[in-house]
Every structure is written in structure tokens, then in C-alpha cells.
Amino acid sequence: MNLTGWRTYLVTQSDRSAGRDTEEIVEAAIDGGVDAVQLREKGRSARDRYELGCRLREVTAAAEVPLLVNDRIDLAAAIDADGVHLGQSDLPIEIARERLGSDAIVGCSTSTVAEAEAAEAAGADYLGVGAVYGTASKDVPAEKNGIGTEPVATIADAVEIPVFGIGGITADNVRPVIEAGATGAAVISAITAADDPAAATAALDEVIADAR
């Protein structure tokens, strides 16, 4: 799958959805033109994530929007997701390829050129780079929280695969991330916490498309 056309990438987290169901947020994001969805849902049991993932798989498949799973290769396989997104402390990219197949989309979180080059060499399809502006959505070491756009630029220059900025990104601050070389942006709160997730998705997409 060619990921260079991706611009907006939703990462789900129900505790930031103002009491709304994750399915509702995902459906709205799809209406707004989101290019990919990642099932994250930290803090929920594996069973809950599996059941939610099965429901999201139906929604995303009907809309022909790729669904990925955060961290868990086994869960990605169980719900027949399109791929998985791995962190630096998760199982290796090579294991994801072995378990999910050559057609699976495999992303990897990075914050340095060394991590990015290693992920690309291991077969990653794209990189998530951040946290660009800092984040409270996940536990991130202080030295990797709010790294700014310069690492995005250096990593984008160092690899051939698409780079997506993540961490505190909104429609108001995404332009410098794209101008630094990112293909698009992965967001949680910018869509999930928005009063109108569909409009928020469309607004983010519009800025990214213009910046590209």
C-alpha cells in the first residue's frame, strides 16, 4: 500500500472523547476524510480492545480506511487489522512481518535518526516521529516529549519511507511539521476531543494538504 497519500491519521483513546463512543469518533473522522485509524485504547483490557477492534474493523473496512493496532501484533492478527504500530520497546518489526505477512502495514515510533534508520532497515512502512509539541496522552520520557520540528526534518531527510509527526499536533500548529518534511500527522486529542470530530479532521487535512 502506498502511504505517501496519507495525511490525517487518527489514534483512538476513549478517555479523551468527552464520553462519546470510540466508534462514533471513528465514524466521524471517516466522514471528515481521515486516511488511517489506529486502535490504541491504553488502559483497557485485551478483551475490551479485541471487542472494540472487531467493531472498528467493520467500520473501517466498509469505508476502505486502513486499521492498525498499537503495540499488539497478536491483537492485530486477531481482528484482521491492516497492520500494527510498534514502539521502541515492543516486539521487533521482523516479528510483525513474520506474524502478519508481507502485505501488513508496519509503523514504528522514533525520535532519533538512529532509531529511524534502524526501523527502515528492519522493514517499517512508515515512522511516527515525536512527541513534536509534547503530549499528555501517553507516558513519554522528558527528553522525547516536545522534541520540536527539527528532528522531524532530520529524520525525514535520512529515510525514504513516510514520516508522520505525532504529539500535541493540531490544525493550528501542523503546518511547520509538514514543512519540515512530514507526510502527515497522527493525532489523538485534535480529533477525539473536538466538539465536531468530522470538522476537526477536515480542518487538519486541509492545512496538511496546503502545506504539502
TrEMBL record:
<feature type="binding site">
    <location>
        <position position="109"/>
    </location>
    <ligand>
        <name>4-amino-2-methyl-5-(diphosphooxymethyl)pyrimidine</name>
    </ligand>
</feature>
<feature type="binding site">
    <location>
        <position position="138"/>
    </location>
    <ligand>
        <name>4-amino-2-methyl-5-(diphosphooxymethyl)pyrimidine</name>
    </ligand>
</feature>
<keyword id="KW-0808">Transferase</keyword>
<feature type="binding site">
    <location>
        <begin position="135"/>
        <end position="137"/>
    </location>
    <ligand>
        <name>2-[(2R,5Z)-2-carboxy-4-methylthiazol-5(2H)-ylidene]ethyl phosphate</name>
    </ligand>
</feature>
<dbReference type="InterPro" id="IPR036206">
    <property type="entry name" value="ThiamineP_synth_sf"/>
</dbReference>
<protein>
    <recommendedName>
        <fullName>Thiamine-phosphate synthase</fullName>
        <ecNumber>2.5.1.3</ecNumber>
    </recommendedName>
</protein>
<dbReference type="GO" id="GO:0009228">
    <property type="term" value="P:thiamine biosynthetic process"/>
</dbReference>
<feature type="domain" description="Thiamine phosphate synthase/TenI">
    <location>
        <begin position="9"/>
        <end position="191"/>
    </location>
</feature>
<comment type="function">
    <text>Condenses 4-methyl-5-(beta-hydroxyethyl)thiazole monophosphate (THZ-P) and 2-methyl-4-amino-5-hydroxymethyl pyrimidine pyrophosphate (HMP-PP) to form thiamine monophosphate (TMP).</text>
</comment>
<feature type="binding site">
    <location>
        <begin position="188"/>
        <end position="189"/>
    </location>
    <ligand>
        <name>2-[(2R,5Z)-2-carboxy-4-methylthiazol-5(2H)-ylidene]ethyl phosphate</name>
    </ligand>
</feature>
<comment type="pathway">
    <text>Cofactor biosynthesis; thiamine diphosphate biosynthesis; thiamine phosphate from 4-amino-2-methyl-5-diphosphomethylpyrimidine and 4-methyl-5-(2-phosphoethyl)-thiazole: step 1/1.</text>
</comment>
<feature type="binding site">
    <location>
        <position position="71"/>
    </location>
    <ligand>
        <name>Mg(2+)</name>
    </ligand>
</feature>
<dbReference type="InterPro" id="IPR022998">
    <property type="entry name" value="ThiamineP_synth_TenI"/>
</dbReference>
<feature type="binding site">
    <location>
        <position position="168"/>
    </location>
    <ligand>
        <name>2-[(2R,5Z)-2-carboxy-4-methylthiazol-5(2H)-ylidene]ethyl phosphate</name>
    </ligand>
</feature>
<dbReference type="GO" id="GO:0000287">
    <property type="term" value="F:magnesium ion binding"/>
</dbReference>
<keyword id="KW-0784">Thiamine biosynthesis</keyword>
<feature type="binding site">
    <location>
        <position position="70"/>
    </location>
    <ligand>
        <name>4-amino-2-methyl-5-(diphosphooxymethyl)pyrimidine</name>
    </ligand>
</feature>
<keyword id="KW-0479">Metal-binding</keyword>
<dbReference type="Pfam" id="PF02581">
    <property type="entry name" value="TMP-TENI"/>
</dbReference>
<dbReference type="InterPro" id="IPR034291">
    <property type="entry name" value="TMP_synthase"/>
</dbReference>
<dbReference type="GO" id="GO:0009229">
    <property type="term" value="P:thiamine diphosphate biosynthetic process"/>
</dbReference>
<dbReference type="GO" id="GO:0004789">
    <property type="term" value="F:thiamine-phosphate diphosphorylase activity"/>
</dbReference>
<comment type="similarity">
    <text>Belongs to the thiamine-phosphate synthase family.</text>
</comment>
<keyword id="KW-0460">Magnesium</keyword>
<feature type="binding site">
    <location>
        <begin position="38"/>
        <end position="42"/>
    </location>
    <ligand>
        <name>4-amino-2-methyl-5-(diphosphooxymethyl)pyrimidine</name>
    </ligand>
</feature>
<feature type="binding site">
    <location>
        <position position="90"/>
    </location>
    <ligand>
        <name>Mg(2+)</name>
    </ligand>
</feature>
<dbReference type="InterPro" id="IPR013785">
    <property type="entry name" value="Aldolase_TIM"/>
</dbReference>
